[in-house]
Amino acid sequence: SPVAAVIPAAGRGVRLGPGIPKALRTLGGTPMLVHAVRAMAASRAVSLVIVVAPPDGTAEVKSILDAHALPGGSPGGGWGRTDVLVVPGGETRQESVRLGLDALPPGYEIVLVHDAARPLVPVDIVDAVVEAVRDGAAAVVPALPLADTVKQVEPAPVAGRPEPVVATPDRSRLRAVQTPQGFDRATLIRAHETITDDVTDDASMVERLGERVVTVPGHEEAFKVTRPLDLILAEAVLARRRL
Length: 243
Ligand code: C5P
Fold this sequence. Notes:
By secondary structure, this protein is an alpha/beta fold. It contains seven helices and twelve strands. Strand 4, helix 2 and strand 5 form a beta-alpha-beta unit. Helices cover 30% and strands 21% of the residues. Strands 1, 4, 5, 6, 7, 10, 11 and 12 form an eight-stranded mixed sheet that branches. Bound molecules: cytidine-5'-monophosphate (C5P). Cytidine-5'-monophosphate binds next to helix 3.
């Protein structure tokens, strides 16, 4: 069955600093979103990418993608074997993903959800996620062990004041999860129809349904570009790849 990837790219990227939407910031001169689309299209399995654009920026995103597509172009607009669609997003990441899923044509039984903010994910990770879904998992997340110890705190009554620590989960059993996360289509759609709480990833919605979610090894280069320091790291990774 062919695989589709939904790329939520409608965030403002406030933590990165003021300016244009995060997905349109450049790395090595190329918008992050273009790197993310290429990363998905690099997988032989992925034949459709649905980009979820800022609601007021759909036309701009379309023209940026057109400008970076291969010249000549396939019917899909020059991304090799992969078609690229652009749809408007929403207020939250999960609303943006749901709007992307609304545009999913029939026939795609495996769906990836990949953050535009993870532009440098290696294709091996994309393929490993797809393979695990093909092997029967309803939901698959790339995951890495943590370098830092994690504390659970009580929110401080006043922002910026010390916060009481309430617990220290066993680090050896914690994982930082990345994207693309891969799903059986029906499971992902049911999760988005059923779970309305504020969550930060799609796999956690599937967990709430009581379905089994599994991990595959993630990759350091699939890190999320969130803060200014991440841009410096991303530029360095790109420069090393170009050597
Ligand atoms: O905010 P966070 O870093 O978790 O965002 C992860 C991804 O979700 C980013 O690629 C961002 O563009 C996307 N997003 C979205 N719609 C929103 C907020 C975030 O597509 N309303």
